[in-house]
Amino acid sequence: MSLDDATKLPAAKGPLVYRQSVWTRVTHWVWAICLFFLLLSGLQIFNAHPALYVGQESGFEYDNALLRIGAVNTPEGPRGRTILFGQTYDTTGVLGMSGPQASPVYTAFPGAVTIPSFRDLATGRVVHFFFGWIFVGALFVWFLASFINGHLRRDILPGGRDVAGLPRDLADHARFRLHHGRLYSPLQKLSYFIVFFILFPLIVLTGLTMSPGMDAAWPWLLDLFGGRQTARTIHFGVMVLLVLFFIVHIVMVLLAGPLNQLRSMITGWYRTAPGTPREQGDRP
Amino acid sequence: MSRLIVNRRRFLLGSAAAGSGLVLSGCNQFDFLAQRGNPVREVIEQANVLTYSAQRALIGDQVLAREYAESEIRQGMKPNGSTEPSTPEYMFLRQANFEPYRLTIKGMVEREVSFSLAELRNMPSRTQITRHDCVEGWSCIAKWTGTPLGPVLDQAGVKPGARFAVYHCFDNIQRTVSGDILYYTSSDLVDAYHPQSILAYGLNDEVLPVSNGAPLRLRIERALGYKQPKYLHTIEIVDDLSPFGRGKGGYWEDNGYDWYGGI
């Protein structure tokens, strides 16, 4: 049986279940918008000093950088160069140097993935902090609502059964055998748990650690992350993980049936697989 | 069935094409946000007001920025912004080893006062090893020695109703066809009276060098680098920032950077 048979055979439909509360749906789309702007304005901010360090400060007279993106002059002309963990890569066209050959642009990340598309740190910061506030506000609303309506306990926090079912679920996912049950599968729970309880708090707290004002208020932030520059590096790393999450998220939505998935995140109603036991409140 | 499969495939291809199209076309559809004074930008700039209010509410007025150990000074202080002012006034003072230099406190004060460097050096001093955070993203730890600003302001007597201190500097940060633009910035009186806000004349146990703001640089340790004015000559106490520059309270602020600078 192929994975999308369930949505193809009208005779063998499972019940339509109310899966996503209005709190989950609204915060989901608010985050989608926020993360788009936060990513692109964040890359603009990164371009103002395209290097990442470990520790309290940035080494100018010594080297504590993990990543450096820039342009260098070579006998063949300027090239984009990225140094990551001591390894040097030629990243011409993507990082350090991009744009048309006649008039290349020497920014770390190309203008296609920054807001604004040209160098403008001030605007990047204005955009970043505006959406940062909304992102954090939505996070508070979601945590509160999900605690009260049971979404956290039911769908996010992995329980004993989820841990036991994880190997099986991993194997199923590897074979693209996706279940359209009433509840999230163990792997889904684990992914959302990591995003909500690890990645989102980390990216907010490391963002705050870059604020000299917040470092005075909460000096433990500096100790927790091992310094302002380490926090900046972690902030960037978590961004990369969230981009990876986004890619997997989109691929899974497409594989699992994009229309059904989109409907559940817009109206709340989700079509389950044939044979799913009917419960009170379901629709045919 | 096959029709459905084709549609599904088409949908996938279509969404992939639309998605990559959005990325490839870049984000210049949001470039309008860069226009200073654009109404949408003015709305989202209000987030900076929220940040300022939130940090003032959250952070006690006297709470100190972290101070570091001597062993954490691993390099010289990186100079940034103006490093060699070329205005005639500054060049004259520099040639005279800053002997004729005076720091003036004026505006909404009981009495306008001014101090020579020797007078400032004879006042009680404070030495602090702090981390300088540039708005660009880098940080540098250095030891600063100077006169706390609060008691200096008290000698002038700040009048009731005053809200801001404007810091006027010698350096021509930008040279335009219509003349030099001189650096200035400003802070509220909380930052001006903060115990770590010092008029620094010493850096890493030596006399403050020209590249780092000689003869006098203000440190506001809970804010970013552009709130640490170099080549400082006058502090003006005011209740309104709009008469200065383009009215946003500082050179970088006039260029779209947030006024508070605490994040």
Automatic annotation (TrEMBL), chain A:
Transmembrane helix recorded as keyword: yes
Keyword Lipid biosynthesis listed: no
Localization, UniProt: Cell membrane
Domain (Cytochrome b561 bacterial/Ni-hydrogenase): residue spans on this chain: 19-268
Biological processes annotated in GO: respiratory electron transport chain
InterPro entries registered for this protein in UniProt: Cyt_b561_bac/Ni-Hgenase, Di-haem_cyt_TM, Hydrogenase_cytochrome
One Gene Ontology CC term in the entry: plasma membrane
Alphabetically ordered keywords of this record: Cell membrane, Membrane, Transmembrane, Transmembrane helix
GO molecular function list: electron transfer activity; heme binding
SUPFAM superfamilies xref list: Transmembrane di-heme cytochromes
Domain of life: Bacteria
Membrane topology value: Multi-pass membrane protein
Transmembrane segments: 29-46, 126-148, 190-214, 234-256
Entries under Pfam families matching the protein: Ni_hydr_CYTB (PF01292)
Name the record gives this protein: Cytochrome b561 bacterial/Ni-hydrogenase domain-containing protein
Organism encoding this protein: Devosia elaeis
UniProtKB/TrEMBL annotation, chain B:
A Pfam family: Oxidored_molyb
Superkingdom as given in the UniProt entry: Bacteria
Domain called Oxidoreductase molybdopterin-binding: residue spans: 97-240
InterPro entries, alphabetized: OxRdtase_Mopterin-bd_dom (IPR000572), OxRdtase_Mopterin-bd_sf (IPR036374), TAT_signal (IPR006311)
Stated name of the protein: Molybdopterin oxidoreductase
Protein's organism: Devosia elaeis
